[in-house]
Amino acid sequence: MHYLSFDQEQLINLEYSLNKEILRTNKAGSYLCTTLNGCNTRKYHGLLVSPIENFGGEKHVLLSALDETVIQNEAEFNLGIRRYQGGTYEPKGHKYIRNVQFGNVPKITYRVGGVVLTKERLLVEKEEQVLIRYTLEEAKSPTVLRLKPFLAFRNIHALSKANMFVNTHYHKADSGISVRLYEGYPDLFMQTSKTVDFVPVPDWYYNVEYLKELNRGYDYLEDLFVPGYFEFPLAKGESVVFGAGLKEVKSVSLKQRFTRELKKRGQKETFPSSLEHAAKQFVMHKKKTAEIIAGFPWYGSITRQTFISLPGLCLSLKDRNLCATILDSYLKYFNDGFFPDNIGDGELTYHSADTSLWFIWVVQHCYKKRGNPEQTWKIYGPAIKRILEGYRESKLGYVEMTSDGLIQATKDDVALTWMDSYILGHPVVPRAGMPVEVNALWFNAICFALDLADMAGDMDFIEEWKDMVEKVARSFLKTFWNDGHASLADYVFDGQADWAVRPNMVIAVALDYSPLSKEQQKQVLSVAKRKLLTNRGLRSLSPDHLRYKGSVRGNQQEREAAVHMGAVYPWLLQFFVEAYLKIHKKGGLPFVKQIVESFEQEMTENCVGTVSEMYDGNPPHSGKGALSQAWNVAGVSYALNLIQKYRE
Hints:
Blueprint: E1 4-7, H1 8-11, H2 14-17, E2 21-25, E3 31-35, E4 46-52, E5 58-72, E6 75-78, E7 81-84, E8 88-92, E9 97-102, E10 106-112, E11 115-123, E12 129-138, E13 143-155, E14 170-173, E15 176-179, E16 188-192, E17 197-209, H3 211-216, E18 221-234, E19 239-245, H4 254-264, H5 271-280, E20 283-286, E21 289-292, E22 295-296, H6 303-317, H7 322-331, H8 355-370, H9 373-392, E23 399-401, E24 407-409, E25 422-423, E26 426-427, E27 434-435, H10 436-456, H11 459-465, H12 468-480, E28 481-482, E29 487-488, E30 491-493, E31 496-498, H13 504-510, H14 518-531, E32 533-534, E33 537-539, H15 556-562, E34 568-569, H16 573-584, H17 589-597, E35 614-615, E36 623-624, E37 628-629, H18 630-647
Antiparallel strand pairs: 1-9, 2-3, 3-4, 4-5, 5-6, 5-13, 7-8, 9-10, 10-11, 11-12, 12-19, 13-18, 14-15, 15-16, 16-19, 17-18, 20-21, 22-37, 23-24, 25-26, 27-30, 28-29, 30-31, 32-33, 33-34, 35-36
């Protein structure tokens, strides 16, 4: 039995299996995503979803689904499953599934009478190609397999509708065909590893219904185009590989290609190995650069989340060069000490009060891992200096250093911290003024820079900045601490402190350099433990607050109103664990170990083998938002590694 597996009873239960999803990526921006039983419930689902260069690199659903039909003695058994308008499922192939096991790749086993057929799917690394291997394990009479491709050719955020402009023609390829439904798209080559017959039967399938979009209040009906079907005999014990990609390949190479790609993928036999596999999916390579995709299926690269993710992802992947490669990639967009919100858009925007300080935090982690202060300062010292100067001299305009040494950030109708949800163009949680974690990161950045410069012998820098440590520490305590609250203010605007209990104060405790005394750190952590901690991370707001929302549900505006008003975020757990062990040492291990290891259950709860974007603040803390989020996987991995380090 595999570590991650599902049996027949679970799989034929639609209420269960439609809420479990599968995700695979190719390290170049493409992904494969669907439910456990293969029924697409989101417009973002598809077997080949790839960035299209002609459309600004945005992701497009090309191959939406592939229906398999087993034919024996003129009887046909369709293994596909699709939901149509009104909740009608046709075909109902899920009833033939016997189990799904997650080894190197997900393996689905179907049984139809005396026929046992297995299906394995993967994406070729750094290529826009999906490979699907079918193996006829058992058969008592001659068997034919029919494959019917459902095509979309549209942006992941849109929906396809039947139209007169679709190109219904196809061209022959090596043991297959190529199609291109609309101008601007590349050809999609669909090929098999053995000689097949392609029967052209161009037709539209109308009103495919996406249940998740219906429940989220979005458009949810789509028309999909089917150009025809492939058909071929399959002998007992025989395997055939179907490939769909943007380049034609030699059909005889498909089997070897599948085997080669399969060997690259490790077994998901444990909780840590599942996290490691999940971590790999976020790294996107581009020639000599690399980025971190913030989450699947709809996010691109978000710079803040990239930096926060890096320590945990690098620990999980055990890749010594990944951190430096990504930091160097993002430094190309560095301007006057600040980084853009993301690097995927044509026009760069700089709307973050903290991203550059997270960059210094990443360098801090790199240094702790590798040492060599002279080399670290030589490589990253210039950027660190420019960041500190950029804040001090208000190079961004709306992010500036006050006369008492703290950082304030204010811009009308723009959220400048990680709590950046919007309703009708206005931030749900503006946090204008002086946010607590920004100033904690500022203090940490100054202290780390001074220590690193000291070890590297940069006395000019030390002379310029040495007086700031005491000044910022004194101002921080005066601004954010109040004995009557036993916690930190979340932000201060025009002299008015917001005392809402939020997780941002935990970051101030967890950082290596903190202006708080040990007793103050204990008090902050005690409040966070009592009011914010759950078995899925920290709540974004205490439940005793009047504006607390314990469930992320409803239409888009209702969901946006809740995502930073109570939703739980796993990435914050790494800061809680670090702070807790910093204070309690080994005595705190049993408690944090129990919290972190409870995430093992999450490996089979939502998207199999990974961690969702957020969770409801109220029990049972159901997963919400994107299926898989980089900083959450990284945060859990980091916390797990930290616990192991303390145990050793």
